[in-house]
Amino acid sequence: MTVTIIGIGLIGGSMALTLKERKFAHTIIGVDANAQHAEKALELGIVDKILPWKEAVSQSDIIILATPINVTERMLPGLLESCTHQVVLDVGSTKQTLCETINDNTNRKRFVATHPMWGTEFSGPQAAISGAFDQKATVICDREKSDPDALELVENMYRALGMHIIYMTSSEHDLHVAYVSHISHITSFALANTVLEKEKEEDTIFGLASGGFESTVRLAKSNPSMWIPILMQNRENILDVLNEHIAQLRKFKACLEKENYEYLGELINRANEIRRILK
Amino acid sequence: MTVTIIGIGLIGGSMALTLKERKFAHTIIGVDANAQHAEKALELGIVDKILPWKEAVSQSDIIILATPINVTERMLPGLLESCTHQVVLDVGSTKQTLCETINDNTNRKRFVATHPMWGTEFSGPQAAISGAFDQKATVICDREKSDPDALELVENMYRALGMHIIYMTSSEHDLHVAYVSHISHITSFALANTVLEKEKEEDTIFGLASGGFESTVRLAKSNPSMWIPILMQNRENILDVLNEHIAQLRKFKACLEKENYEYLGELINRANEIRRILK
């Protein structure tokens, strides 16, 4: 199997490494608009060769679009049109707008919309990790809109990556990820800005920052070129969740202001119920 | 050296294990109001024996108060008064109120106010980990108020735990921990409540929850009996930081509402500066 990966960053690079190691792919072709990334990916052995996208497509069985979602949206229609038998999938964090973009594409059925639920705050090919997706979930959206053979190939690919598959519609997907991913990023960005704004003694932050702080602020290192398009595309769902989150924070604030520690205890006990979900 | 640990939970238990292993202590005496915790600590070999606190104090060189901070505040005055030559330290997350409580205590100088900056969302003796404090920071507050020999003994103990020591006043301490610890907990509690409130499909959260969500919500599992007293005692500093945090979240909200993605980019770039501090 020959796999082309467009965008050899954290996600694309990690997929490349794992698919090659597990012999799902015998050849990985890399496509990247950033010449330095392309060169680095070759140097690190993440891809076997670098080609312009049209040439890569003609030599491939599967094409994985692992670019920021605004680039994916721009490239996908033309990419699909140039396909004969190939299967194209994307791995982006929002799905609804993208799927609408290609609703009338003659090759729509060669496309599978997916979202593997893994990432770190790092980016670029040097951040790629083999085996990163093991035991994580991947979402496949609107599966009935893909050809059965295309769907099956993508399912097999994700199984080779060690992932379990969850199926939903693209609009359900966008709603759920607003809760479990996008809001966490906004909270981390805002928390980083809070600390940077108020705490002028940076050496003290560095010295004191313990596990708790690092884990909640870690996501604030995330890349704006990836995150702005996500926040734009999932704007409405995110605003809903963000409004609720601000309302929840205001409850904590009111408890402290009014010294209502009984209600504060109820709020914390309620939050502890997340243990049921996150073991 | 005989060390008494009052409150053999996550922190007290982890200190006990490490101090024994590294031969700083030849005997660890445990004191715990919770008989099940005491028994568990004996069974796990965390302590050598369990005694009532007065007996324990009379047999010890150092007494570590590792109880929730409201219990610490209640016990510390009497504990100090019963000391002859012993050194007492606490390990709580707030310092100013506690230090004021014992300002006029005749044995004030046998006390050293400390805060080792490590913890997890778990509690109880079964959560104790040997070597947990290695390469972490500990704070010692108001050091000039302790006898030089008491201070030196506590410093040596923290070095045996593998920690580096930061000195500050108790009021500086309380301000800094509001930023680097307490606000992260409130954010996590509120985020857990947001998700539990809005996302009724719990199986979906469980399936999709990826690294990002888990790390920001992890602290929401933290124990209210520990956290309510902390939030009470550091109420004013925390309210300051919480107000700023809500204001920062509102900036993200306004960007999304007004579709001002240029300013959104500035906010994220600013948040990325946390990289300078958290490597």
Helix and strand layout, with pairings?
Two copies of one chain form a homodimer.
Chain A (H helix, E strand, L loop, with lengths): L1 E5 L3 H12 L5 E5 L3 H9 L5 E2 L2 H6 L3 E4 L3 H13 L5 E4 L5 H6 L9 E6 L20 E5 L6 H13 L3 E5 L1 H29 L3 H7 L2 H7 L6 H10 L1 H23 L3 H12 L1 H4 L2
Parallel strand pairs in A: 1-2, 1-4, 2-3, 4-5, 5-6, 7-8
Antiparallel strand pairs in A: 6-7
Helix pairs in contact in A: 7-11, 11-12
Q: Which terms summarize this structure?
A:
homodimer; 13% strand; Rossmann fold; 6-phosphogluconate dehydrogenase C-terminal fold; 2 domains; 279 residues; 54% helix; 8-stranded mixed β-sheet; 13 helices; 8 strands; alpha/beta
Biggest sheet layout of chain A: 8 strands, mixed
What radius of gyration of chain A results from the CA coordinates?
21 Å
Oligomeric description of these chains: homodimer
**Helix/strand order of chain A, N-terminal first:** EHEHEHEHEHEEHEHHHHHHH
Distance between the termini of chain A: 38 Å
List how many beta strands of chain A DSSP finds. Answer: 8
Looking at CATH, the homologous superfamily of the largest domain in chain A is NAD(P)-binding Rossmann-like Domain
Sequence of strands across the biggest β-sheet of chain A: 3-2-1-4-5-6-7-8
The CATH class of the largest domain in chain A is identified as: Alpha Beta
Main structural class of chain A: alpha/beta
**Approximate helicity band of chain A:** 40-55%
